[in-house]
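Quick note —
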Amino acid sequence: MKIIVADLEGVFLPEIWINVAIKTGIEELKLTTRDISDYNVLMTRRLAILKENNLKMQDIQAVIATIDPLEGATDMLNWIRGQAPIIILSDTYEEFVKPLMVKLNFPTVLCHHLTVDADGSITAYNIRTENQKSAAVKALKSINYEVIAFGDSYNDLGMIQEAQTGFFFCPPESIITDFPDIPVTRNYAELKQMIRTALIK
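Predicted structure written out below.
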């Protein structure tokens, strides 16, 4: 049986941190795993910026409340679920995505979680497991699933390379240059065709 795994932000949702950056005017918060491949370096810096600017969980949640899925994303996700099971593997946090899931008709999302103190300060990020995306694909393969994987960032490489079929969706040019052998889809129409092809192999 085949199963699909996919990234969340940049695929079905806008980047949450970029929206926070736009709202707060803090340019450095626009950096994502498209720009910094080491996730721990990226998150350590993000938490430091939040502390420096006295930004709390409630400030981020206020931004999240204004976010809608990418245009066509809900229909795309509904279509995928009509073709095969899908699990979204994301390096975001439960506290961020929970209010957004209703807008995507409650897909299965596996992600990390945050430590938040009484006044709303985010004091730590808690990784579910190192390299969780590739670990999840390995686990699915171990129970005899054939995995189709796609995402847009450097942190998706592990699952894309571990899957039997893996490809990018709307990645930045830098990733295409660094990994020219990985196929690329650039819109939902191309994504549908790639999934159809992968499912009939």
